[in-house]
Specification:
- This protein is of the alpha+beta class.
- The chain has a single domain, classed as Jelly Rolls.
- The chain is about 25% helix and about 20% strand.
- An eight-stranded mixed beta sheet has the order 2-3-11-8-13-6-5-4.
- Strand 9 and strand 10 form a beta hairpin.
- The protein is globular and about 65 Å long.
């Protein structure tokens, strides 16, 4: 999930389509659309073959046991959190306490934004990767040779809260939603700190989470007539510590596990959580950020809302010193330190390409 530039897409030559496309929704709703323009076509081998894992394979974390379980239950959940971060970089959170009505309301509110007239959405297009409100299409059209079948709304909601003024009611819903999700993320990060053998408040303090960056990203993946040729988002890892995601009931998220792509189904009233690059850096590689991608389909429009949680912009993120010292001898740092703001700008200003940004701070073994 990442910042995106919102420049209009190039004109296309389909006679039934508008001469200027500012959103993939506009293109997808073109009368009689049966194929996609060449500028949206990806080579099929980019997709790779995805598999569906058996029900129950993806780790499930019962949040209620983390915050109000018995000491024994909490200890087990902390252990499960660590194992999920180490083996998957991904897990599902249930019993989180956020009402289903609020989850439905925020999805409806974002649908309302994407349903606005194009000229209204253009009021919020933004220009810079650190603009607090930006809407647009694809990921970074200024550097991409092929575009992604995706529209987005990206908003900074902490430490200062922003929101588009349209549609009516979205600001109030997104404020409540952001606060509830931030509380869950901080609870999870407390458990993750403990799973690393650190104090529960370690990540909170070291990453200055009181001023930590929380970014709200709504993604729209309209129905596509040739889903086998298009991509919603390419394989990438997220910046930050944790990203919590909900979907509208139409699947399309895939994660990479043990070198294979895995379909992630839709699960009502749960959060899908993936670890970010900065948790990998902080843990010195004990926990890995997960590669994931978004696929599109011909049967319905998929929408997701991702909430990314990162350090404060001026935090320099490097491996925790406490994790580099042990009775077995000192462990070399596997990553150099970099200010979170610099990392964010670096990732968001380039093409999405796997873990290419993380590789820039990785120290190669001699």
């Amino acid at each position: 999930m990442a910042a995106e530039t919102a420049s209009p897409l190039p004109s296309n030559t389909f006679p039934s389509q508008p001469t200027k496309i500012t959103s993939i929704k506009t293109l997808a709703e073109s009368p009689g659309l049966t194929s996609i323009p060449a500028t949206y076509t990806f080579t099929p081998d980019l997709h790779g073959q995805a598999t569906s894992v058996p029900e129950g394979s993806i780790p499930v974390i019962d949040y209620s046991l983390l915050i109000s379980g018995t000491p024994g239950q909490r200890s087990e959940i902390v252990h499960e959190l660590g194992r999920a971060c180490q083996d998957w970089g991904f897990f599902m959170v249930i019993n989180h306490g956020v009402p289903q009505k609020l989850l439905s309301s925020i999805l409806d509110g974002c649908k309302g934004f994407f349903d606005l007239a194009e000229e209204e959405k253009q009021e919020f297009k933004g220009n810079n990767v650190l603009d607090p409100i930006r809407s647009g299409t694809s990921f970074n059209v200024s550097v991409e040779k092929a575009f992604y079948w995706r529209d987005f709304l990206k908003v900074f909601v902490h430490p200062v809260f922003y929101s588009p003024t349209k549609p009516a009611g979205l600001s109030e819903i997104s404020l409540e939603y952001s606060q509830r999700v931030r509380e869950i993320a901080r609870g999870l990060l407390t458990g993750i700190s403990e799973s690393l053998g650190l104090e529960g408040s370690y990540i909170e303090k070291a990453m200055d989470l009181e001023r930590g960056k929380q970014i709200f990203i709504a993604n729209l993946y309209p129905t596509c007539p040739q889903p086998e040729l298009a991509m919603g988002m390419p394989p990438h890892s997220d910046h930050g510590l944790l990203t919590l995601l909900i979907q509208n009931g139409i699947g399309g998220l895939q994660i990479q596990h043990k070198g294979k792509w895995v379909n992630v189904g839709t699960h009502s009233n749960s959060f899908l959580v993936n670890t970010g690059d900065h948790l990998e850096i902080l843990s010195n590689g004990r926990y890995k950020s997960v590669l994931h991608r978004a696929m599109v389909n011909s049967k319905g429009t998929r929408m997701s809302i991702a909430m990314a949680h990162g350090p404060s912009l001026d935090s320099v993120v490097s491996p925790a010193p406490e994790l580099l010292v042990s009775s077995k001898g000192d462990e070399p740092a596997a990553y150099i330190g970099m200010k979170y703001k610099d990392y964010l700008e670096l990732q968001q200003s380039n093409k999405l390409d796997g873990k290419s940004c993380l590789d820039r701070v990785r120290i190669s073994a001699v």
